Amino acid sequence: MTKKIVVLNGNPKSSSYCQHLGDRYEINASEHFDIRRFNLSNMEFNPSLDCGYDARQELEPCLADFQKAILWADHIVIITPIWWGGLPAKLKGLFDRTFLPGFSFKYEGNNPLPLPLLKGKTSRIIVTMDAPSDYAEEQAAPALAQLDLYTLQFCGVEKAEITLFGSIIASNAEDKLHWEKTVQEIANKGQ
What we know:
CATH superfamily: Flavodoxin domain
Number of strands: 7
Structural class: alpha/beta
Number of helices: 5
Order of helices and strands: EHEHEHEEEHEH
Low-confidence stretches: none
CATH class: Alpha Beta
Strand content: 15-25%
Distance between the termini: 16 Å
Number of domains: 1
């Protein structure tokens, strides 16, 4: 059976280095695996979970498609920048709106601990940032904890493999070529 991979470019800009890395991943992985690609910049939805979990908020078509792809996937690849030490607001909104009770987790009875519903899936998070490399891991840590531990793992996805690229703003052509080759190698392995 061919591995099924969802690739999410989590940068809300339509043209970005994350978009470029997503293209590299998709092109290489699609030679060996089934791929479904989402670009946050093309997804039109209200990122605010206006009623929390108190009332059902109708999903826009792109969100329903994203949920179907997540259920279909064996592996989830998220490519995102770190802005101000956190995730882009629209990316956070994507997870707020789609990783809902009954879809990615559920509560049973009086048990305060949720039952994760996305077990058996793996993930990789590819992060870009402008922080100097000496501070990159420290600056990325809160956003990675939010995305990996408190979102993906909370819902049953195995601990993510992390790939961190930076400083983008201080990089040169050689740095970017190295990063692109790294993404291509990861993609060829379906990681």
